[in-house]
Design brief:
152 residues; 48% helix; mainly alpha; two-stranded antiparallel sheet
Length: 152
């Protein structure tokens, strides 16, 4: 059984490499230069920090039936404890907007899901179902709302 688990893990953690050709290399400096060329002088692109009341509002809308992540802390508990957790979650979100993200939250639970009417013995016939920490799911929603146009 452990061999099967390891095989799935290897498959899902290396699948991206199979779709990248040798000619496709990520070059951060070229991307940075391109972006800098598109932004007029004196204009800054920023994400405004999220406020405590915004975090509380999002926590109140959590779907409590969603799965838990590796931390096994489900959305029901987070929603129930939102008053106590909101300041810490707000702090973490604002840190991540500055490029700081805790290492232990960079993990996810990945479950293989067999594609419709597929051959269950072929590993390529499985898709991954990734479950993030509840905190990360909320952060993604918050970041989508915070994207703003550059202002002088």
């Amino acid at each position: 059984m452990q061999d099967i688990v390891n095989h799935f893990n290897t498959h899902f953690t290396t699948i991206g490499e199979r779709y990248v050709t040798n000619n496709t290399q990520y070059q951060a400096n070229k991307l940075n230069d391109y972006v800098q060329d598109k932004i007029p002088a004196g204009v800054r692109f920023t994400f405004p920090f999220i406020k405590l009341d915004e975090t509380k509002k999002l926590l109140s809308k959590l779907e409590t039936s969603k799965a838990t992540g590796l931390d096994e802390v489900g959305p029901f508990f987070i929603k129930l404890s939102s008053e106590a957790l909101a300041p810490s979650i707000t702090y973490l979100i604002n840190l991540s907007l500055e490029g700081v993200f805790p290492e232990n939250l960079k993990l996810a639970k990945v479950n293989p899901i067999l594609k419709n009417e597929a051959n269950h013995t072929a590993i390529d016939m499985y898709a991954d179902d990734t479950t993030l920490h509840t905190y990360e799911t909320n952060e993604e929603e918050i970041e989508r709302k915070l994207i703003t146009m550059p202002t002088p």
